[in-house]
Amino acid sequence: MSEYQYYEFRAIDRPLTKDEMAAVRKTSTRAEITPTSFVNVYHWGDYHGDPLELVTRYYDAHVYTANWGTHHLMFGFPRRLLDPAVAKPYCVTDATRLHDKGERVVLEFLLSPDDGGG
Rounded to two decimals, what is the model's pTM? Predict the structure, then answer.
C-alpha cells in the first residue's frame, strides 16, 4: 500500500513576499508555492519543515492529513485578535493546543489513531 500525506498552508491576512516565498521554498523543493499558498503531497518520504513555524511566521492556516488517519489543523491569529488567556481554558485535551508566539497565537488541533482520535 502506498503512503499518502497532504500538506496545505494558506495566507489569508496578507500574501507572502518574494523573500518569504524563497524562505518557505527551502523547506520543500517539490511544493507548489504561491504568495497565498503552499501545497504538497507525499507518497513516500516526509515533509522536513516545521508546520508550527510556518504558521507562526508566514501562513494563517494549515491542514494535514495522512492515509493512516492522522489529521492536523492549525490557525494562526494576530495577538490583538485572540487573547491567549481567553483561549487557553478551551485547550483541555492533548488534541487541542495553544501556542503563544509573541505577536502570534496559534491554535492547533491534532487527531491521531495512535491517541484514540477519530
Answer: 0.91
